[in-house]
Amino acid sequence: MKRKLSMLLAAVMLAAVALTACQKRDTTVPDGMRRIESETIGVDLIVPEEWTDSMSTGAVGAYCSNSDSTNVTVMAWNVDASTTLDSWWELYEDEFNLVFDDFKLENTETTTLGGVAANKYTYTAKLGENEFKYVQCACLHWGMVYVLTFTTTPDKYESHAEEFSDMISNFAFR
Fold first, then answer.
1. Which domains does the chain possess?
2. pTM over the 0.85 mark
3. In the chain, where do the E strands start and end?
4. Measured between alpha carbons, how far is 50 from 52 in angstroms, rounded to an integer?
5. How far apart are CA 159 and CA 16, in angstroms?
6. How far apart are CA 121 and CA 86, in angstroms?
7. Per-residue model confidence as pLDDT tens digits over 69-100
8. What DSSP designation does 23 have?
9. Residues 146, 152: contact at Cβ < 8 Å?
10. Pairing mode, if any, of strands 172-173 and 144-152?
11. Pseudo-torsion of CA 114, 138, 155, 163, nearest 10°?
């Protein structure tokens, strides 16, 4: 009797695991947006319909237009198992100070990215004479750090802020 009960319990647990693994991700795309799928880094990125895809090895992204360089990219890197978001950001921030002039962190807040706890960093920096405003959402998932980066000029920030918020809200891991 115990053996039959144990086998029944094991079968139920196995079925539950199989059904959970087969669950489909949410495929809803908000009006005016479209999905870019990346098998390479295992993400779905939702972008405005009129934006142009910008794919490269190890990254997925899109840009607004030839006249508006606002863009978004997703990249992922392997990290050591002991890495936290705070320790990753500390190293990343040091690199920014070497690359950019006038790097200024404006805000850090917690959020989620694809259902995973994330940090959102907002900062400005100059590259040569050009000033940019960045928002990066970073999370640790599957032994990697995933970084969703929104890049624009300060004068274009407000006109795209809601779109980027929608991109964060609809980001999904595959």
1. 26-173 (3.40.1000.10)
2. no
3. 33-38, 43-48, 52-53, 59-63, 71-78, 101-113, 116-127, 130-141, 144-152, 172-173
4. 7
5. 45
6. 11
7. 999 999 999 999 999 999 999 999 999 989 99
8. P
9. no
10. unpaired
11. 0
